[in-house]
Specification:
This protein is 36% helix and 23% strand. It contains nine helices and eight strands. The protein starts with a strand and ends with a strand.
């Protein structure tokens, strides 16, 4: 069942992902799958915020002991694929809407915010960061007591280099909605506009909603694409943070 929720409108991002569907393998989420299985909660539930085409939810359904699954996305196209692939309920809406907590009448043992925060884009970097904080606040509110918020994000540093990436992409997309690759697929200066953060900024965001430190943290360094090296990026990787409510 697809439940429609009033949503934060970001038509540019929605259009981009409707035409460029990312597809992540279960291997990318192995650490999360292992964590969930170690918890061994009975009759546990999970909502995937920004579930895309349901590939990740399908992996959790196949490889964990969880019983109940929900997908949430702003794209109806994605939700149709998710319902077909996973056979679960879905919500059409944005985690940025304050009323979402009231309209979703269930709390979850696990809330996953996977590779979403850097796609929440405002007029500038500060507005984008405020949207990311709001998304984390609402996601945290969807947890049941002793539930776990799972945050998975690509990270880049230093922050000044990511300011440059944001500004270049923001400028280019005023003229075209196309992805513009230079020196390979990973070196994209076009759509979508993104606002990447470093490890310190992401953990600072969560301090506004919980005084507790992550119960699980993992950082996997990645090779820096050439275009980002040229603008001063010194470190990039995948950050996994898990908080308990």
């Amino acid at each position: 069942m697809n439940t429609v929720i009033e949503k934060h409108e970001d038509k540019t991002t929605l259009s981009y992902f409707d035409n460029n569907t990312p597809n992540y393998t279960a291997k990318r989420y192995k650490a999360i799958i292992d964590f969930i299985n170690q918890q061994n909660k009975e009759d546990a539930s999970l909502i995937d915020v920004g579930c895309g085409d349901g590939t990740v939810l399908k992996a959790f359904k196949d490889e964990t002991t969880l019983s109940h699954f929900v997908g949430m996305d702003i794209s109806n196209n994605y939700l149709e694929l998710t319902e077909e692939k996973v056979g679960c309920n879905t919500f059409n809406g944005s985690i940025l809407d304050d009323e979402i907590v009231d309209k979703i009448d269930k709390k979850f043992d696990y809330v996953i915010v996977g590779a979403i925060l850097h796609h929440l884009i405002g007029e500038n970097r500060e507005e984008s960061k405020a949207l990311a904080k709001k998304a984390l606040k609402n996601a945290f509110s969807l947890l049941s007591p002793s539930g776990h918020l799972i945050i998975s994000e690509p990270t880049y540093s230093p922050e000044k280099s990511m300011d440059k990436v944001f500004n270049v992409k923001n400028f280019i997309t005023k003229f075209t909605d196309d992805r513009i690759n230079i020196l390979g697929y990973e070196n994209n200066i076009g759509a979508p506009v993104v606002s990447y953060y470093d490890k310190g900024i992401l953990t600072e965001m969560m301090k506004e909603y919980t005084s507790e430190k992550p119960v699980f943290e993992k950082y996997t360094p990645h090779e820096i694409p050439l275009s980002l090296k040229l603008i001063g990026v010194k470190e990039t990787g995948a950050l996994l943070l898990i908080y308990e409510k």
